[in-house]
Automatic annotation (TrEMBL):
<dbReference type="InterPro" id="IPR037401">
    <property type="entry name" value="SnoaL-like"/>
</dbReference>
<dbReference type="InterPro" id="IPR032710">
    <property type="entry name" value="NTF2-like_dom_sf"/>
</dbReference>
<protein>
    <submittedName>
        <fullName>YybH family protein</fullName>
    </submittedName>
</protein>
<dbReference type="InterPro" id="IPR011944">
    <property type="entry name" value="Steroid_delta5-4_isomerase"/>
</dbReference>
<feature type="domain" description="SnoaL-like">
    <location>
        <begin position="8"/>
        <end position="130"/>
    </location>
</feature>
<dbReference type="Pfam" id="PF13474">
    <property type="entry name" value="SnoaL_3"/>
</dbReference>
Length: 135
C-alpha cells in the first residue's frame, strides 16, 4: 500500500507529465474546485477557482509547443493526516533560454488537502528567480 507521501508524489508527477504533454484534462485532475494559484504571469492577485485555473493553461501550452521543456528535477513532499505541501524545482524553458541561463529553474510549491480520502491540490505557486543570484 502506498503512503500518503508516495500518493502525492505520483499525483504531482502525473500532473507534470500532463503539463508537458499539453493534456488539459490531466492538468486539472486532482485539483480542488476552490484552488488558488499564484503564477508567473498576471493577474497579480492570482487566480481563484478551477475555471480560472483552467483558463491559464492554453497560452502556456501554445508557448510550450515551440519546444519548451517542463520536467521535474527535484521534488520534496511532506504529508500530514489531512494536509500536505510539496516543493519542486523544474526545468521549464526552451533550448535557447537554457543556453542563455542553464541554471534557471521554475520553483513550484503546492498545498494539498485530503477530501473524502483523496488528495487534491488547493494551492499552487509558480515562480522564477528575478535577475542574477545575490550573495
Amino acid at each position: 500500500m502506498q503512503t500518503d507521501d508516495e500518493r502525492i508524489r505520483a499525483l504531482i508527477e502525473l500532473w507534470a507529465e500532463a503539463v508537458h504533454g499539453g493534456d488539459l484534462k490531466g492538468v486539472l485532475a486532482d485539483h480542488a474546485e476552490d484552488i488558488v494559484m499564484f503564477d508567473v504571469p498576471p493577474p497579480y492577485e492570482g487566480v481563484r477557482g478551477l475555471d480560472a485555473y483552467r483558463d491559464t493553461w492554453p497560452p502556456f501550452f501554445q508557448w510550450q509547443a515551440n519546444g519548451a521543456s517542463f520536467e521535474i528535477e527535484s521534488l520534496e513532499v511532506t504529508a500530514g493526516e489531512d494536509v500536505a505541501f510539496a516543493h519542486a524545482l523544474l526545468r521549464c524553458g526552451t533550448r535557447e533560454e537554457f543556453a542563455a541561463n542553464p541554471d534557471n529553474r521554475l520553483r513550484l510549491t503546492l498545498g494539498l488537502r485530503k477530501d473524502d480520502g483523496r488528495w487534491v491540490v488547493v494551492h499552487e505557486h509558480h515562480s522564477f528567480p528575478v535577475g542574477p543570484a545575490v550573495g
